[in-house]
């Protein structure tokens, strides 16, 4: 892989099976797609809201469509991909639960990665400082953040349980490294779930 | 790389014209033949003929995509996209651009002589569709010995042809670039065209289309048609920036109906210079073909079914200030391609220039098209 992938993307890239069909929702400039294409001969398609990112991704020869995860997933047929991937985008959607439902309709499995808002640093900032946390993973202030649905690992697990989805895999990240499942909700900065319906 | 020698083959090069026997069966049921097609080619076909790119032109465009226009002396209309070091490059690609049938730059159209009478067809020329134009292009490619297109590329009406190609000849198209275009003509599009046609037909010189004999052509009507259309090619912001309410060569309003405002003077110039290079009847026929264009209608009302089973890759580009074929039209195409499981890319680019943006300076457009074309060989 030509460029260093973000840790959650590297983890997903490792797990995706070679030759799979993948829809990367919120694919950014296509870094993961390019890595999957080049290293695993994956047939990757992308959806991305930012025009500059789309132009960059198409400029590197990727099939990326400019669109919105909240409104444009319904145009994809059922089970048309092996994996649907939503990385660091869940917390920016208007209806995260419906977006995940769509991912599980379109893909046989879905990767969902998101920053854990219950990480101890954020908790501390809120409890002691009384301010919304601004951290390395969540660098934006409350008024200009794109994150409109702050979610914790335990929140997400509760949603998975409530909807009856299955967890095929889960990984937790602290910085660039994987961390244990124990107390992930307190100690993990980032979570990656592999789900199916 | 081995190439097919083109220097001694008269089929290839600039300012070519061929008479094909046809007949070409038209969507209307009529048949057209023999038919002339004027075209240009650039670059050379490689040994396996896998580097052919067809460029499709817009309503008033022509085959001079990357060479000087014989009437206006201006550089090729898409020199920013086609040429040395550009995304479509004769050093790498064999490039074909043909004048659409119905037009007036050397391909059969209403100004051409009707073989039955020897007189210009005028309004006896059969009404055409975009699909007819595409089938004529396919006949030209047969003549050139081209089976498959690495890419078919077009903006505006050229985009309509490009998008139609894989629906008619799915086995002949590997990729398709559709810029500032649509899968169907909207009521508003048809309405603007009707204004233009009525302006032409209201000109006393039009005379039912039989104006070729004495050289008194419906210039005034055609100029008005062009002026009205030209407004739709620009954006309100672009017009404001370029002209605002500034006066033309005068200090004060004249309280008359001369071209007081710069924008009036500009439009009059656009109208007048257009009549020197375009035939009024061709304008009627080509706008009609665009109005009849609706790919979904030709496929049982489902745009997705038009692309079912296609293996072509698609790249769609729209511009945020284009209100003639706005982004929503491109999105309709993208959703249909997604539903059909086709490989599709789409981006809305930002430009102040409205619909005309695809012809103007836009580095992002070149980057997208270049990346898309190269992506096929990744």
Automatic annotation (TrEMBL), chain A:
InterPro entries per record: Methionine_synth_MetW, SAM-dependent_MTases_sf
Superkingdom of the source species: Bacteria
Protein name in UniProt: Methionine biosynthesis protein MetW
From TrEMBL, chain B:
GO biological process, one term: methionine biosynthetic process
Keywords: Acyltransferase, Amino-acid biosynthesis, Cytoplasm, Methionine biosynthesis, Transferase
UniProt cross-references to InterPro entries, sorted A to Z: AB_hydrolase_1 (IPR000073), AB_hydrolase_fold (IPR029058), HAT_MetX-like (IPR008220)
UniProt binding sites for substrate: 226, 356
Enzyme class: transferase
Cellular component terms per the entry's GO annotation: cytoplasm
Pathway stated in the Swiss-Prot or TrEMBL entry: Amino-acid biosynthesis; L-methionine biosynthesis via de novo pathway; O-acetyl-L-homoserine from L-homoserine: step 1/1
Reaction catalyzed: L-homoserine + acetyl-CoA = O-acetyl-L-homoserine + CoA
Ranges where the AB hydrolase-1 domain occurs: 51-359
Active site: 156, 322, 355
Database matches in Gene3D superfamilies: alpha/beta hydrolase
GO molecular function terms listed in the Swiss-Prot or TrEMBL record: homoserine O-acetyltransferase activity
HAMAP family, sorted: MetX_acyltransf
Family: Belongs to the AB hydrolase superfamily. MetX family.
Subunit description: Homodimer.
Role noted for this protein: Transfers an acetyl group from acetyl-CoA to L-homoserine, forming acetyl-L-homoserine.
PANTHER family per UniProt: HOMOSERINE O-ACETYLTRANSFERASE (PTHR32268:SF11)
Protein name per UniProt: Homoserine O-acetyltransferase
Organism whose genome encodes this protein: Sphingobium ummariense RL-3
Native organism taxonomy: Bacteria, Pseudomonadati, Pseudomonadota, Alphaproteobacteria, Sphingomonadales
This protein's encoding gene: metXA
